[in-house]
Specification:
There is one protein chain. It contains 8 helices and 19 strands. By secondary structure, it is α+β, with helices and mostly antiparallel strands. Strands 1, 2, 3, 12, 13, 14, 15, 16, 17 and 18 form a 10-stranded mixed β-sheet that branches. Strands 5-4-9-6-7-8 form a 6-stranded antiparallel β-sheet. It has a 3-stranded antiparallel β-sheet with strand order 10-11-19. Strand 15 and strand 16 form a beta hairpin. Helix 6 packs across helix 8. The longest helix has 19 residues. The two termini are 13 Å apart.
């Protein structure tokens, strides 16, 4: 297969990813992000609808209606929720998904109240002034030992409650997204908004080139992946395969880099379909995609939730390499392009 020039689509993927990163969407607070995603697919000419659960199903067309492929990515991210309003007016949080206080410390946040607007603050260690706190270096960073310091004149629980802040309010962490001149994409929550951008890039490629995929092709942008049940429902009846497009792991003991597409052979939930791993590797080779095959030691995906819900499917997992997962993450334009290249060869 001749290696096609995908720069136009890679640039589109990066733009869409940055736009989506700027829409807060911690698990449980994804309506705005999913409505945006639905609108973007519709603007490309594809039918899309919001599921009862809040995700987005997109029909990317296709010829073989009995042998469909489902591509899954998720729009929900890590975040926090107000667990306690402390006596000093500050907020103790509980995590949404795998948000870790060790790498969330000092980040700016937005507290989304249920009825009274949004307030800004910073997630800090309790007693965060090094010149005051002699135990600063030795204090373990936990949700109990950290707090949101509101950028409001509050000194008591009652002061904070008067703002309309209450237990159960969503706390969104600033993504701090940027793209370097060398092509690196840095942000919180590339997991998995970069993959949503990639699927939008695939949709644009299908539209621009007037392609009807060989098999019925669907995208499911889920909204509860970070808590384990994003892909459990809304699987089109005619699908026989499902591929999770999520972040590829980069770290010690693995071979993938941020510039490659990672094909996962096994993660915490067990092995992926051997036939699909073979097929994805073949598609990568045929298309000229730079790829790696790895085993992820601490990982679960939407497509595993899809299988656990009782769906009879072959399953696979691919993604652009992402370093520092669940922290301040980094990928590269080349990684996104290599995922797109593989998907074009496999699904179209």
């Amino acid at each position: 297969m001749k290696k096609i020039n995908l720069k136009k689509y890679t640039d589109f993927i990066v733009k869409e990813t940055l736009d989506l990163l700027n829409i807060d969407s911690p698990t449980g607070y994804t309506e705005a992000a999913c409505n945006w995603v639905k609108g973007e697919f519709e603007s490309l000419g594809f039918k899309a609808h919001i599921t009862n659960k809040g995700g987005v199903i997109v029909d990317l067309t296709g010829k073989d209606k009995k042998n469909g492929i489902l591509l899954e990515a998720h729009a929900d991210t890590l975040g926090g929720m107000v667990a306690t309003i402390k006596s000093n007016g500050r907020l103790q949080l509980t995590n949404l998904g795998g948000m870790n206080p060790n790498n969330a410390e000092t980040e700016n946040v937005r507290v989304v109240t249920k009825f009274d607007g949004i307030y800004e603050g910073t997630f800090q260690l309790n007693n965060a002034s090094i010149h005051v706190n002699g135990e600063y270096d030795d204090t373990k960073r936990t949700w109990e030992n950290c707090e949101v310091v509101l950028d409001e004149d509050v000194k008591s629980k009652e002061d904070t409650e008067k703002l309309g802040i209450s237990v159960g309010d969503i706390v969104c962490f600033e993504p701090n997204a940027r793209v370097t001149k060398s092509g690196y994409i840095k942000s919180r929550f590339l997991d998995d908004k970069l993959s949503v951008g990639i699927l939008l890039g695939l949709a644009k490629y299908i539209k621009d080139n007037k392609i009807t995929p060989k098999r019925a092709l669907y995208a499911h942008i889920t909204c509860f992946e970070e808590v384990g049940h994003g892909g459990c429902g809304s699987v089109p009846e005619n699908c026989t395969e499902a591929i999770s497009i999520d972040m590829g792991c980069v770290g010690e003991g693995l071979t993938c880099t941020e510039k490659q597409v990672s094909i996962c052979a096994k993660d915490s939930g067990g092995p992926y379909s051997y036939a699909m791993v073979q097929g994805l590797i073949k598609a990568a080779k045929d298309s000229g995609a730079d790829y790696a095959v790895d085993i992820y030691p601490h990982y679960g995906s939407d497509v595993e939730a899809t299988l656990r819900a009782g769906n009879d499917l072959k399953h696979g997992l691919i993604g652009a390499g992402v370093y520092a997962s669940h922290g301040y993450e980094r990928s590269h334009k080349d990684g996104a392009e290599n995922v797109l290249r593989l998907l074009i060869a496999y699904a179209l």
